[in-house]
Design brief:
With 240 residues, this protein is an all-alpha fold. It has 2 domains: 68 residues; 157 residues, no CATH class. Helix 4 packs across helix 5, helix 4 runs antiparallel to helix 7 and helix 8 runs antiparallel to helix 9.
């Protein structure tokens, strides 16, 4: 459509001049051209502008194609390290879930393990993939994963601070059960990274069914009461 408009803009002044010449006698052409010189100049300028715009559009399209190629190369390079990234993130979700369970159940801060360090390098690689991915759906899924990781980290750091300052944890067991479900969902997201790294799938899921979440819950270290509450929450939140 754009190319057709360019050609119309080019041919329009030529046809207009030809029409004027054919309409009037050849001997009167210069007089007519002088009388219509403003309109003729305007038509020629419009045609020249369309030609220039076409050249600019070609250059812009070439630059966009080059940028897309570079993004794909960067994305493929980041994807090569995706299995390592997923492994680091999976370890963090497991340890952070156990930390939250331990912090809720302890009676003294002296018995609490050190809070797990946020996997900054792994998260940074995920961010690099977001910037490099040419696929909008993949970028959205990875951004969703980063948001989940940030929430998990905030819960770990907040809980650690309360324990370190000998403050009573303002949480109920129902809160811990909800966090357990969120941790299971985070692990399910990381599981998708493994599948994506192995090229078993071309997309990253961001929603899961009840069975997937319950399977992830079984891998987490929580007491029986919390587990039972978490399974109930999962049944209400996720579809079969």
């Amino acid at each position: 459509m754009r190319r057709a408009v360019m050609w119309v803009g080019f041919l329009l002044p030529v046809l207009a001049v030809g029409w004027l010449f054919a309409r009037e006698e050849g001997t009167r052409f210069m007089a007519i051209l002088e009388a219509w010189q403003t309109l003729t100049a305007g038509l020629i300028a419009i045609g020249a502008a369309f030609i220039g715009a076409r050249a600019v559009n070609r250059q812009t399209a070439a630059q966009e194609r080059r940028a897309d190629e570079l993004r794909r190369v960067r994305f493929d390079a980041e994807r090569a390290n995706l299995a390592v990234t997923a492994k680091d993130l999976y370890a963090y979700t497991t340890v952070s879930g156990a930390f939250l369970a331990e912090a809720w159940s302890i009676a003294s801060s002296n018995t609490l393990s050190a809070d797990p360090a946020f996997p900054e390098q792994a998260a940074g690689r995920v961010v690099a993939m977001i910037e490099a991915s040419p696929d909008k759906a993949v970028r959205s899924a990875l951004a969703h994963l980063i948001r989940k990781l940030q929430v998990q980290s905030a819960r770990v750091l907040g809980t650690s601070h309360l324990v370190d300052t000998a403050l009573t944890l303002p949480y109920r067991q129902a809160d811990l059960a909800r966090w357990a479900v969120d941790t299971a969902e985070l692990q399910s997201l990381v599981d998708e990274l493994f599948k994506f790294a192995r090229e078993e799938t071309g997309f990253l899921a961001v929603s899961f069914n009840r069975k997937q979440i319950c399977d992830a819950l079984k891998r987490l270290t929580f007491d029986e009461v919390t587990h039972a509450m978490a399974f109930k929450i999962a049944e209400g939140r996720f579809k079969p």
